[in-house]
Amino acid sequence: CVAKNNAEDSALQTTIDWACGPGGADCGGIQQGGSCYDPLMIVKMASYVFNNYYLKNGLADEACNFSNNAAVTSLNPSQGTCKFPS
């Protein structure tokens, strides 16, 4: 589950805030110093959070929507030291 490339940054930030708060996703990887922390690449950070939330919720289709800002992918979105759990 990753963020759509055409999603608005503000919408992604809102969904990150929700997923990392009430949604209960593990957002340690996108905190400052985390392996996926990159404030200039909000799509990458959102994808990390969305994937975490999706896995936490048993790969349920409805757990990868985020107001239509996310989509399921079969490709591994990990990049460099930013490793996505699977």
From TrEMBL:
Domain X8: 1-84
InterPro entries linked to this entry: X8, X8_dom_prot
Subcellular location: Cell membrane
Cellular component aspect of the GO annotation: plasma membrane; plasmodesma; side of membrane
Key words of the record: Cell membrane, Disulfide bond, Glycoprotein, GPI-anchor, Lipoprotein, Membrane, Signal
Pfam families the record matches: X8 (PF07983)
Record membrane topology: Lipid-anchor; GPI-anchor
Organism domain of life: Eukaryota
Protein name: Predicted protein
Taxonomic source organism: Arabidopsis lyrata subsp. lyrata
